[in-house]
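Write out this protein's structure.
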Amino acid sequence: LVGVPGCGKSLSAKSISADSQNNKLSENDVVSEEASITTFVPLHSTETLINTLNVDFDGDSLDDQIVAVHKADSPFIFLIVGLYNSESNSYDRFAEISTEIAKIRTFSYSAIDMTGTHKTALVYQGVKSNSDSVMKIYQYEKKGKRGELILIGDFSSDGTIFIQQTERLQHEHHHTVHL
């Protein structure tokens, strides 16, 4: 990944499962090499890695990493945006997003160009503990030296929320969120 072999933290995977009656996550250690997940973003000792997404989020042509974690003191899933720092040859924790999602089986996240500007947006969705669907969309904006994470879409519904892609002129795509 971005020519940085061996600098990541390889973790033994923990399987995370949802207790549908109590809306809680539970952890069970898995001792299997095939099940190991690697993150390059430094995690705290109270964070358990759920999944990783590698994508150029800040537009510098280098892969960044967005990791989903469970924190010991919260029932919700958190997303940590790690930006690749080419000067230190490491990943910096840029932002932390607390989702309202505790039901892990309903949770998903991806990176797509939602605005048609060739900027990658982070989209997560899932079901909250009150059974409402939620979808949030974030985009990185360059602000000075550091940059900023901007919320560009915030949707909640008692039904399904989905993104529909439609064709535009000159083979570009347009995305519409439907509630």
